[in-house]
Amino acid sequence: MIIHTQEPILEVHDLTVSYSRKPVLWGIDFTLPSGSIAGIVGPNGAGKSTLLKTIMGLIPPSSGFIKLFGRPLEEIRQRVSYVPQRESVDWDFPVSVLDVVLMGRYGKVGLLRNTGARDRSIALECLDKVGMSAFAKRQISQLSGGQQQRVFLARALAQEADIYFMDEPFAGVDAATEQAIIGLLREMAAADKTIVVVHHDLQSARSYFDWIILLNMHLVAAGPTEQVFTEEMVQQAYGGRLNLLSQVGDVMEKRAFPSREN
Amino acid sequence: MQHFIDFFSFTDPNVRYVVLGNVLLSASAAMVGVFILLQKKALVGDAVSHAVLPGICAAFLFSGSKNTAFMLVGAFITGWLALITIDYIATKSKLKKDAAIGLVLSVFFGAGMVMMTYIQQSGNAAQSGLDHFIFGKAATLIGTDLVIFSVLAAVLLVAVGLFFKAFALVAFDRPYAEALGYPVRKLDLLLTSLTVLAVVTGITAVGVVLMAAMLVTPGAAARYWTDNIRRMVAIAVAFGVFAGLAGAYISYTAPAMPTGPWMVVVSSIIAFVSFFFAPKKGIVPKLYTQRKNQRIIAEENTLKMFYHLGERNSHFKGKRDLSELIHTRQVNETLLKTTLRRLATKQLLIAHGQQWALTDVGYQKAARVVRLHRLWELYLTQYMDIAADHVHDDAETIEHILTPELERELEHQLGYPKKDPHNTEIPKI
């Protein structure tokens, strides 16, 4: 069940993504309205993070296209922000919390210029929003998991974007941080920012998100939570892997077959 | 001393050249090295250093003379080729990166050695001294070389300065840099080129075999002294410069001594010292902290013995002998003796021949430790639902850690209790 929106802020059109020729996402096609908090939900190995990375241009799609604000990503990067998985970086890196948040300003200041006093005050403001201003000078290796996630969030906020893509922001964080983050996301959505979150907890998904993208290598459902997040749809997404789909993928990998004829 | 003055007055033009060359090369290598280290590409640096040898030989074969400019170009080309080959093998073949690096290093270096042997046997008179490139010979530095090195070092300095922010970002969080629209691949290419440049700057003095050490060791040592990337670069450069100066000085005082290897030795010593003695991160300070904690634990436990004995007859400051103390608690006798002596010098205990008693201050301290122990036991039973007979061991550790602020908070949360879970009294201070 896929419910489209009339004026999409994000349009994913017939997207297929492969790792070394083996398709991991098949024909994904959905749209997202502005000001929504959308959850990408699905079992392990469903391709949730892959979808996010493809939207962010980190993985090239085998076919299909993605449009943000009706334009390709390269033209509107300034309006898009990304929060990678917390585990993806080395937290022993010799930088302070403030340094990490300032990285959020790097897109705005450009390749060669340095961040200035204004960037600094924005970064401090964002740290304050996530309740981490007391930690600005702290070296990042001294942070707990929840604090690391807050710092990543502050960095994304510092980009002052219109749409935010977050990869598992609730994974391995304490309950207080989870509540703080969801509170912040709601505030952002109220200010007409759009937020897309990769999430793996079905329990909280219903209350957190007003739009759900149910994924299991293919798109099971996409639309407003109350309409698409039904027992039946969840069953379909989690009811075992689509065996035939992954078998076909294996054959394509083995025979080095392209995912489209040309 | 005369040597020292002669050397550091830089009146001898030869000394000037060698020192300047060394400082330039080690500073620029250390600077680039920090980023190589942070991107976890230290081995790549080693491979590149070895891979410039065939380029040098090819340049000699091509020009028929030891023209520095030609050789640097040759070195740059093969060094770069080696990096591209590593990347290609790692991404396009079943081999993993470590295997690719090992392969490229040995193949390129082997090819270089073959070419060098061929040149040496060819009878070309100009070839003498070409083998200096293997282990380096700073004394062969001359004025025109220095001009080239200065230019290369300046290029490195400017490039690293300009792209500092971008290099740090890519090293910390590559996907994020990509998502921001940073040209990550081009930045990789640039850092790669800078690495090759730094190696090329160093080979005349240090040689291809040891050059990797000048890239990586100053940065590795600097990491022990700071958690700030800018300071880390500054410290690495300072270490590099010091190693460069020291190497030049040693070979000046003892002319038989090679400069390059000495630079590497000095820089290794710096790394070694940092590894063991850097405050906080070094091994020795860490051991010291552990030892200090062990002492605190032993002292506080001993004070507690006196308190526990005193509790039996409400005579806390009574004199106790060794056997009496040992009965209260399993403890190593020699450790107990030394701890008692230490407590006596700290005036927490008074010695009366073979007996000891608590002083006023000692009594206060002992009471506080017991108090913290019992407060924590109470906290565990009340707030964490742990059975009363399971809380003792945990409290044995926590009693040494709790700060006065935590103590107040604990007391407040528990409602200023009088008795612990075993119904013994919590001492007041």
Automatic annotation (TrEMBL), chain A:
Gene Ontology molecular function terms on file: ATP binding; ATP hydrolysis activity
Record-linked CDD domains: ABC_Metallic_Cations
Residues of the ABC transporter domain: 10-242
PROSITE patterns per record: ABC_TRANSPORTER_1, ABC_TRANSPORTER_2
Keyword presence, NAD: no
The entry's keywords: ATP-binding, Nucleotide-binding, Transport
Pfam families in the record: ABC_tran (PF00005)
Keyword set includes Hydrolase: no
SMART domains linked to this entry: AAA
Record-stated family: Belongs to the ABC transporter superfamily.
Protein's recorded name: Manganese/zinc/iron transport system ATP-binding protein
Native source species: Parapedobacter indicus
Lineage: Bacteria, Pseudomonadati, Bacteroidota, Sphingobacteriia, Sphingobacteriales
Automatic annotation (TrEMBL), chain B:
Domain of life assignment: Bacteria
Keyword Glycoprotein: no
Topological relation to the membrane, as annotated: Multi-pass membrane protein
Principal location class: membrane
Pfam families registered for this protein in UniProt: ABC-3, Fe_dep_repr_C
Molecular function per GO: DNA-binding transcription factor activity; protein dimerization activity; transition metal ion binding
Subcellular location: Cell membrane
Family named by the database record: Belongs to the ABC-3 integral membrane protein family.
Name the UniProt record assigns to this protein: Manganese/zinc/iron transport system permease protein
Regions crossing the membrane: 17-38, 43-63, 69-90, 99-119, 139-168, 189-212, 232-252, 259-278
InterPro entries per record: ABC_BtuC-like, ABC_TroCD, Fe_dep_repressor, Fe_dep_repressor_sf, Iron_dep_repressor, WH-like_DNA-bd_sf
UniProt keywords, alphabetically: Cell membrane, Membrane, Transmembrane, Transmembrane helix, Transport
Domain Iron dependent repressor metal binding and dimerisation: 359-428
Family matches, as CDD domains: TM_ABC_iron-siderophores_like
GO cellular component: ATP-binding cassette (ABC) transporter complex
GO biological process: cellular response to iron ion; response to zinc ion; transmembrane transport
The UniProt record lists the keyword Transmembrane: yes
